[in-house]
Specification:
Layout: E1 6-11, H1 15-24, E2 29-34, H2 37-49, E3 53-58, H3 64-77, E4 79-85, H4 96-115, E5 123-127, H5 139-147, H6 167-191, E6 195-201, H7 207-213, H8 218-227, H9 236-247, E7 258-261, H10 265-271
Helix pairs in contact: 1-9, 3-4, 4-6, 5-6
Length: 273
């Protein structure tokens, strides 16, 4: 009998994604996806050089057809045991519209598409942000962000053009939506005997994090780091360790929750409010 491959799907070929593959990809077929073919190819080649079995697929997570194709590829490779969604845009990288499409809609599309292909006993982790903990929304809006069909999600009036002041606000809304959307989706994933959770990183040492630190909010972020209990910037390995826990055998009673991995920044900010 031919052994069925264990499949790990990962979107976002940046530093965080590569760290997750290096920690969990040994012995698995890794399906790596990114919208940027140059970044995707470079990361895939680096991982292959270190012995990982990587298949790459250019994917725009805000495109339903592309996400469906990624899920179809994954199911054809073997038993989809782990799905990790790290793809996203930060405030300095994109417009309000693009942030909502990639960070909010992209997460919803991935949740839907991989709910039907995740193997029993499998687990998903979707990367949100500590910004979602710092951007409380009206309970009614939160309810609609959690349950509105994905095809109608961006049609919510609060997400219309002109309703969101700036990229930072769009990012906070999208990441809060990620947290509550994952929580709601855990019910459907549970019907497939699978789990799904989100992780909300703080300030992490990645190219995206460096761009934010160099931007207009950089001084505020530096102050957050200096005042946090951990007293340091996070690393991709910090996030990879959290992903390993939430997708592994020691967390089989955990689903539908958000794990804050921020070095204590939110504890300080909310404790002082």
């Amino acid at each position: 009998m031919t052994e069925v491959s264990r499949v790990l799907v990962l979107t976002g070929a940046g530093g965080m994604g590569a760290a997750i593959v290096r920690r969990q990809g040994s012995g698995a077929t890794v399906l790596l996806a990114d919208v940027n073919p140059t970044v995707l190819s470079a990361t895939a080649e680096s991982l292959r050089a270190d012995g990982y079995h990587v298949i790459e697929q250019v994917t725009d997570v805000s495109d339903s057809v592309g996400v469906a194709a990624l899920a179809a590829t994954a199911s054809g490779l073997g038993r989809v045991e782990v799905v990790v969604h790290t793809a996203g845009l930060s405030p300095v990288q994109a417009s309000v519209k693009s942030i909502l499409r990639v960070d909010l809609l992209g997460t919803a599309l991935m949740l839907d598409a991989f709910c039907s292909v995740i193997a029993p006993g499998g687990a998903g982790v979707f990367i949100a942000s500590m910004a979602g903990r710092l951007y409380p929304l009206d309970p009614d809006l939160e309810g609609r962000l959690a349950t509105t069909p994905t095809s109608d999600l961006l049609n919510l009036p609060e997400l219309s053009e002109g309703s969101i002041a700036d990229q930072g606000s769009a990012y906070g809304i999208a990441k809060r939506a990620n947290q509550i959307r994952v929580r709601a989706a855990s019910v459907a994933w549970g019907r497939h005997q699978a789990r799904v959770n989100s992780i909300s990183p703080g300030i992490i040492s990645t190219p995206m994090g460096a761009a934010e630190l160099a931007g207009s909010s950089g001084p505020q972020m530096q102050a957050m780091l200096a005042g946090s209990p951990a007293g340091r910037i996070g690393t991709p390995s910090d996030i990879a360790a959290a992903v390993e826990f939430l997708t592994g055998p020691n967390s089989t009673f955990i689903t539908g929750t958000d794990l804050l991995v921020d070095g204590g920044v939110v504890a300080v900010l909310l404790g002082a409010s």
